[in-house]
Each structure stands twice: as structure tokens, then as C-alpha cells.
Amino acid sequence: MELSSEQLALKERAAALSNGLLRKRGAEIDQSREYPWDVVEALKAERFMGMTIPKEYGGQGRSFLDTVLVIEEMARSCTVSARIVVEANMGAISTVMAYGTDAQRRRAADLVLAGDKPAICITEPDAGSDASGMTTRADKRGNRYVLNGKKHWITGAGVSRLHLIFARVFDEGGEEQGVGGFLAVRGEAEGLRMSKRETTMGLCGMPEGELVFEDLEITPDMVLLPPSGFKRGFGDLINAYNSQRVGAGTVAVGIAAGALEHAVEWAKTREQFGRPIGEFQGLQWMLADMQTQLTASRLMLHAAASSRGPSGSSFPDPMLAAQAKIFASEAAIKIVNDALQVFGARGYSRDFPLERMARDVRMFTIGGGTAQVLRTLVASKILGWKLPQTRDGYAMFENQSDR
Ligand code: FAD
Predict the structure, then answer these.
(1) CB-ligand 1 contact for 123 (6 Å cutoff)
(2) What are 65-78's pLDDT values in tens digits?
(3) Which atom of ligand 1 is nearest to the CA of 166?
(4) Is 164 helix (H, G, I), strand (E, B) or coil?
(5) Domain coordinates of the chain in residue numbers?
(6) ipTM for the assembly
(7) 233 CB under 6 A from ligand 1?
(8) Residues with Cβ < 8 Å from 233, sequence gap 6 or more?
(9) What is the pTM of this model?
């Protein structure tokens, strides 16, 4: 896929930040586990926060493909910074831009352009892959909704201001309406509390936390009504998540690209048996396979980022996004692992970046839809069958000839 000169210039600008500040800060952020507010300032200065926000709201109206170019460059040096760029352009912010009212878009845009990385709150302790099994509820009381429940593994918990919370909606008679999106701003909303921060294996400067909603009141202006209403609200909201999926896959590719660069450099300079280790065919073929996997991943992600889902969707095609995320996340784990191998013992040392990259990259087959669940999505599409995963669902379809 050919990039325009404008896109190449954007990539170059992102590479300069990555090779400078982020290369220096990557290891420090990992060790301190502190959210990098200095990087946020640099991202703001480069206008990498809120790039996809339409111009009328102060953004640049950039495409998901533009965003992907920037994310990959960031992730070569610092995964946490790359994830900030994902969430400041995709996920919750793109959902608000697609489905929100004018006032909601303006509010969300102002927050992101001021440096906020919004949080998207779907997963619960008992509802992970089965996200539709969520129990967080939004009860209608007069013209408001009152939220109660718990979410966990929420990226940015405790640092994000804007939260997009998925909840089951009930009317005043207690009748279930479907799933809705509810906006809350930390610092303004009472009843939104972080109860725990996870101790993660990697991506250490980005807090992952548990959030508790205790009678969190949502005023009508903060209800994000999905286009087909609450009844099909989950489908609409999760469709918007396809942009985030492409973003997550791109972070994995960026880590892999960075790891491969390190491995190539090392293979050329490290000597054993009196020769650079890159002269050994055993390593040459490893490097070639790493590059091949990387190129394939990148092409799939660029195609997904440039695509649109069916029926006028403003989000990437779900099939392309799922395949790209599966392929890129699995390939990246292998590429980074092989790059670490090229470094020998030093790859295993905290004095070199490979072990951090190996810890960071491991996440991407899990968060944003696991590689298994995404395969089910792809299989469902190619078979033309609904593939409900509950026992009841299967039993129901077994009794119907048309599935
Ligand atoms: P489970 O659903 O318990 O799955 C366990 C295993 O079983 C997995 O391997 C899974 O693939 C497999 N499995 C489950 N069902 C099936 C099936 N039907 N067929 C085949 N295999 C199956 N969530 C948010 O809402 N917001 C966030 O910001 C966010 N950030 C995250 C950041 C990180 C670093 C991580 C690790 C997770 C994050 N998540 C977030 C949560 C993430 O979306 C979930 O972890 C993911 O959906 C899987 O849920 P689970 O962990 O409960 O695993």
C-alpha cells in the first residue's frame, strides 16, 4: 500500500519523537511503572493526541491509517506511549465521534486534545470473552441513569478522565432494554472509584485497574445512545471497538519492528568464531522469517485500517480487523522472542530492551478480544453460521435447520 508524501512526513515526525524522547524513556517508564505525563505533553505538542477528531472539534480529521503509521513508530521504542496514541485516537474517542451528540463530541474532543487518554470499560471479573454477560447495570430514575457494578483490567484506570462505560440498561419498571454506553468524567462524577491496580507482567507504566460504580449518576447529556438504540446497543458499541483492535495489533507490530531492528544491528556487530553472528545462515533465515512476518502483519493492518465495515460503518471492517489482530499479535510474539534469541544471554538482561519488549508484546493476543474469540468471529463469518458459545445457544441452533 503506497503512502502519500504527507503520510511519509507524518511517519518521519513520529519516528523522530520515537528515536529521541521515547527511546530514552521506554525503559524508565517500565521500571518506574509511572504514567508518562511528560510523554503526553510531547504527544500533544506533536498533535498526536486526537488526530482522528474532526476539524470542527479542534482535531485534524485524520484517518485510522494515519494513526496506525504514528502508533507503529511509537511502539518501536515505547509501548506505553504507543498505547496512549491508540486510545487518544481510536476506541472510546472514535465511538463518541461516531455516535455522540454535538455536545458530547465537543466535550470528549476538549478532554483528549488537553491530554486525556480515555478509558473504555467493558470487561468484568465474570464477563471477559463473554462480554455480553456483563452485570453492570444502568437503572433509569427520572431522566437519569444510575450505574452500579464493577469493571476490571481497565487501561488507564486512575489516570484517564473520560470513561466510556458499557452497562445493561433497565427502565423504571425494571425491564431490560439492552446495552448502552455511558460517559463519565473522573473528578466530576461521584460514584466512580478505582479499587485496585493490577501488577502486570509488561506495559508497566500504563495502569490497569478495577473500577467500581456505586450509584454513579449519569445525566441525559452523558448517555451515548447507540444508533440502533439500546436493543442492539452492544453490537453497535462493540463494532466501534474495531478501530481499537487495529490499533492494538499495530502496537504489537511496532514492538516487533523495534525488536527486529535491534536484532539486525546485533547480528552485524556481535562476533563469535571470529565472524559477525549475522554471517551464520541459521540466524539469517531467522531474520528473514521475522521480516516476512512483519511485512505481512503490517499489510494486513494497513488494509484493515483503510477498510470500512458494512452498511455505512465509520469503523474498520470487523473481519479484516479480527484477522489482522490475530495474525499481527501472534507474529509479533514470535518475532520478539526470536530477536531476544539473537541477543543470547544479553537478550535476557534488563540492561537491554529485548526482555521488556518480550513482556510487553505478550499482551496483544489477550486484550481487545483474545486470539481465540476473534477466530470464532472469523469462522462464523466464513461458515455463514451464528456461533453462540453458550450451551443453550448451541442447543437452540441444533433445533433449527437454518441455524
Ligand atoms: P477469559 O474470557 O476468562 O478467557 C480465558 C481463556 O479462555 C482465553 O484464552 C480465551 O481466549 C479462552 N476462551 C474464552 N471463551 C472462549 C471461547 N468461546 N472459545 C475459545 N476460547 C475461549 N478490557 C476493557 O474493557 N477495557 C480495557 O481497557 C482493557 N484493557 C486491557 C489491558 C490489558 C493489558 C489486558 C490484559 C486486558 C484488558 N482488558 C480490557 C480485558 C480484555 O479485554 C480481556 O482480558 C479479554 O476480553 C479476555 O477476557 P478474560 O481475561 O476474562 O479471559
Answers:
(1) yes
(2) 999 999 999 999 99
(3) 25
(4) strand
(5) 5-113, 119-230, 234-393
(6) 0.99
(7) no
(8) 169, 178, 179, 180, 181, 225, 226
(9) 0.97
